[in-house]
Specification:
The protein is mostly helical and about 90 residues long. Helices cover about 90% and strands about 0% of the residues.
């Protein structure tokens, strides 16, 4: 039971790190490194607690999908912010 709590906690930390990074406009390299670190830690936890191999693959798959979603959303948000910043800059220039 405890490993389910640990795995769910690692997934929640993935969400929190991704959201925090996007809100703070962190560089995506830093967000990616943090997400990879958390996913590696949870996969190691799965191995330590002896979870079945198929469950191990499922964890990795879900976390890879989450990381991909965060990066895709992050790059979209970054592009939108850059466009808004450029429009504001053009308005200030005149």
């Amino acid at each position: 039971m405890i490993y389910y709590i640990l795995i769910i906690g690692s997934w929640l930390s993935l969400l929190l790190i991704g959201i925090y990074g996007l809100l703070r406009r962190m560089s995506f390299i830093r967000i990616f490194i943090a997400l990879e670190f958390i996913s590696s830690a949870s996969l190691a936890t799965a191995v330590i607690f002896g979870i079945s191999y198929s469950f191990f693959i499922l964890i990795g798959l879900v976390e890879s999908i989450l990381i991909g979603i965060f990066l895709a959303v992050g790059f979209y948000v970054l592009r939108v912010y850059q466009v808004e910043d450029l429009e504001e800059l053009n308005e200030l220039r005149g």
